[in-house]
Design a protein that fits this description.
The chain is an alpha+beta fold and about 150 residues long. The protein has a domain of about 100 residues: Lipocalin (Beta Barrel), CATH 2.40.128.270. Helix content is about 15%, strand content about 30%. Strands 1, 2, 3, 4, 5, 6, 7, 8, 9 and 10 form a ten-stranded antiparallel β-sheet that branches. Strand 8 and strand 9 form a beta hairpin. It holds the Pfam family META. This is META domain-containing protein. Keywords: Signal. InterPro entries: DUF306_Meta_HslJ, HslJ-like_sf, Hsp_HslJ-like.
Length: about 150
């Protein structure tokens, strides 16, 4: 009988119930969105022009745009450097004066022409994180640029 009691006691100890564990999944922390890049003094690189991804031939320069705090717009279209003025009187407004540029040709001249055309058509903009989107007068997208941070 003592032997049976020990077996029952051992079985009872092994079958102890534990408090019910939570079955609800712990919510994931909210995704952290990068703060919006500044419109001015940021190195903006076009990634899409007129709805098409920017593709550059080998051995060509990456185009970029920098909007300076003094109202100067400057950059490189891939073949040529350009410079002009930009205007942003309202919170979402962005227009450019005609840009002055050198006139050398290169394998990426079509990309350069699409880039400068998008800047000329720009009337408004939106920044979300590291992305700058330019829109024309009809609010159609003309360019998507990405902030690239230089070291």
């Amino acid at each position: 009988m003592r032997f049976s009691f020990l077996i029952l006691a051992a079985l009872a100890a092994g079958c102890q119930t534990h408090p019910a564990q939570e079955t609800t999944a712990t919510p994931a922390p909210p995704a952290r969105q990068a703060p919006a890049a500044a419109l001015r003094e940021t190195h903006w690189v076009p990634r899409e022009l007129a709805g098409q991804p920017v593709r550059l031939p080998a051995d060509t320069r990456e185009p970029y745009l920098t909007l300076r705090t003094d109202g100067t717009a400057e950059g490189n279209g891939s073949c040529n450097r350009f410079r002009g003025s930009f205007f942003s009187e309202k919170a979402d407004e962005l227009t450019f004066s005609p840009l002055i540029s050198t006139r050398m040709s290169c394998a990426a001249i079509e990309t350069e022409n699409a880039f400068t055309r998008a800047l000329a058509q720009s009337r408004t903009y939106r920044i979300s994180g590291d992305t700058l989107r330019l829109f024309d007068a009809a609010n159609a997208p003309v360019a998507r640029l990405e902030a690239v941070y230089l070291h």
